[in-house]
Amino acid sequence: MKEHKRIILISLVTGALLMVLKFTAYFLTNSNFVLTDAAESIVNVVASAFAFYSIYLAALPRDENHPYGHGKVEFFSVFLEGSLIGIAGLIIILKSAYSFFYPEVIHDLLTGAIIIGATGIINGGLGYYMIRRGKALPSITIEADGRHLLTDTVTSTGLVIGLLLIYFTGILWLDSALSITVGLYILFTGYKLIRRSVAGLMDETDFGIVSDVVKVLGEQRRDEWIDIHNLRAQKYGNELHIDCHLTLPNYFDLNRVHEEVKLVDKMVNREAGITTEFFIHTDPCLPYCCHYCSMPNCPIRSEPKREEIEWTMDKVMRNKKHYEQ
Q: Is the pTM of this model over 0.70?
């Protein structure tokens, strides 16, 4: 978690410095468009501060009140960030619409454009870095904060274009038109972050991650693992919790069953790219399993193997043994 905290702290300090620069640009230009970008930078600082706190909470060990850890707080962080981005986008749209009817005198546009352009480049580089590290760690909070910064880069780009167009054409209403367009984009970005956070809080399946786990299980499947079914997954921060049923030969003793379960756990944690906690319920095989069982020299086989059943998302997530499908 040290790297998580370091990345968020860099984002927080950078956001605070860029906020000062953006408000400086506003005081120089008196542009409502610049003011909306400066106001949105406040969102960056607040969101980064809460993200830093959520990373701290997510790193706390499990306790009696939180037996699965504190990782879910990251989804609250993303929800707050998405909500703040959405509010900022709405404010930009409303203020820009207002300026259509009540335009203000603006000046020093080139200086303002240079300042805003510089802040946009810095946010873009930092945002790209945070998204890449957020996926690698993995941390939804860091990734969401990075996407927020990329959104701010788009805002700054639109702002620079608007300021330059106004400077060279003298058409004041372009300021409002472009800012409304950018505001709509920001609003949509906020919606996507909120949608993602709600999905996490509601334990919506992350099919990308589960698909990787199923692929690893299928590629390194042992003869002893007759089938896996009723697989369910929940994410808690950067950890994945999986419940599943594993069918094993019914003549295995308890020690052998325990060893097979450990092998599944170790293999997935080594190969799937995410820390995974397994809760595996073992089922004994039945005579109906023989036609797809690969177990060699089985003393209780009732019929030869005649079918190869590939483990797919659809098959392993059903609450049925493969012979029932």
A: no
